[in-house]
Amino acid sequence: QVYVVFSEELKCWCRAVVQSVKRHMDGYQLRCFLVDYAKYSFVESKNIRVPVKEFTKIPYRAKKCSLYCTKPVTLHLDFCENTAKIGPAKRWDAAAIHHFRNLLK
């Protein structure tokens, strides 16, 4: 379900898909994926609206995607044996994400 949310960071209304809802001091806070900017953002519940039908027909400017057959790896250090091996990881680490973004630039 696509909604229209006001992003405080971008200072504009944009389309978003709600990822999760978190209770906040003065209401609820929603973690949203902004489909036109390909970024995640937190939005207060008072800043969410149901879009008009014509607004949902506009194609997204950004799409979520992943690299085909590319799995995250990490460096496993064994201080007892004084070795380092690359092995599988559950998620990408910050250094790998940073390096990949630099390659894209």
TrEMBL record:
<keyword id="KW-0378">Hydrolase</keyword>
<dbReference type="InterPro" id="IPR002999">
    <property type="entry name" value="Tudor"/>
</dbReference>
<keyword id="KW-0547">Nucleotide-binding</keyword>
<dbReference type="GO" id="GO:0042078">
    <property type="term" value="P:germ-line stem cell division"/>
</dbReference>
<keyword id="KW-0067">ATP-binding</keyword>
<dbReference type="GO" id="GO:0005524">
    <property type="term" value="F:ATP binding"/>
</dbReference>
<keyword id="KW-0677">Repeat</keyword>
<protein>
    <recommendedName>
        <fullName>RNA helicase</fullName>
        <ecNumber>3.6.4.13</ecNumber>
    </recommendedName>
</protein>
<dbReference type="Pfam" id="PF00567">
    <property type="entry name" value="TUDOR"/>
</dbReference>
<dbReference type="GO" id="GO:0016787">
    <property type="term" value="F:hydrolase activity"/>
</dbReference>
<keyword id="KW-0347">Helicase</keyword>
<dbReference type="GO" id="GO:0003724">
    <property type="term" value="F:RNA helicase activity"/>
</dbReference>
<feature type="domain" description="Tudor">
    <location>
        <begin position="3"/>
        <end position="68"/>
    </location>
</feature>
<dbReference type="InterPro" id="IPR035437">
    <property type="entry name" value="SNase_OB-fold_sf"/>
</dbReference>
